[in-house]
Amino acid sequence: MPKILAFAGSLREHSLSKRVLSVAVEGARAAGGDVTVIDLIDFPMPIYNADEHARNGFDANALKFQDLIGEHDGLLISSPEYNGSIPGGLKNAIDWASRKSDKYEVTQVFKNKWGAMIASSPGSFGGLRCLAHLRAVLSIMGVIILPMEIAVTFAAQKFEGDGDVMTDEKTKATLETLGRTLVEMISKTR
Fold first, then answer.
1. Alpha-carbon dihedral of residues 134, 135, 139, 140, nearest 10 degrees?
2. Residues 6+ apart with CB under 8 A from 105
3. Phi-psi region of 26 (alpha: psi -120 to 50; beta: other; left: phi over 0)
4. pLDDT by residue (tens digit) across 82-116?
5. Could you tell me the residue range of the domain that residue 156 belongs to?
6. What is the model's pTM?
């Protein structure tokens, strides 16, 4: 059974990123994936600084996050777009996880993992611009990114109020397909 780590790049409690992620997670689970959903807010890390890393060692929360990535076959990531790119908190978590620790070599936890990406926003671009940045960051570390990526436009309008129930059936089906495709690709290649 493929193991997938799912998380959103937003730290907000009821963010659109977390809400669309939950739909893709349903698709992955329905396809037989063992999905672990985490919230980056539960892994606070200082801004990565190589000098601080050398002085103080590897951050404990970063090591927990690094371990989680290492224990899974794939990543399902949903990101908001901040000024045309990925949020600083998401980038910082990825930066920490890519560093050498006492347990892992540089980028070791990312190499040959499968990845699927989602962006969302309340606007007409759906966070599309951040997906190229996220793809570049993950690809440089050896993550195999699915060619299918989803930018959910007008995302707030696709849910029932502030809840997690998606009312837009076409978008829901597309997100579930992404989750299912990630499970299928991991199953075919492992």
1. -50
2. none
3. alpha
4. 999 999 999 999 999 999 999 999 999 999 999 99
5. 3-189
6. 0.96
Contacts with 3 (C-beta within 8 Å, 6 or more apart), sequence order: 33, 34, 35, 36, 71, 72, 73, 74
For residue 115, give the nearest of 150, 75, 79 by alpha carbon: 75
What is the CATH number for 99?
Answer: 3.40.50.360
Query: How many Å apart are CA 55 and CA 2, to the nearest integer?
Result: 38
Nearest residue to 12 (alpha-carbon basis) of 58, 112, 57, 79: 79
How sure is the predictor about 164, in pLDDT bands with cuts at 50, 70 and 90?
A: confident
User: Could you give the dihedral angle defined by the CA atoms of residues 40, 54, 136 and 19, in that order, rounded to the nearest 10 degrees?
Assistant: 0
Report how far apart, in Å, the C-alpha atoms of 21 and of each of 98, 122, 174, 181, 186 are.
Answer: 23, 15, 12, 14, 18
Q: Give burial (CB, 10 Å; 0-12/13-18/19+) of 170.
A: exposed
Query: Can you read off the two tokens belonging to residue 101?
Result: 């620790």
Angle at 63 between CA 105 and CA 104, to 5 degrees: 15
Q: How many CB atoms lie within 10 A of CB 104?
A: 19
Strands, E assignment, 107-169: 114-120, 144-152
Domain count, the chain: 1
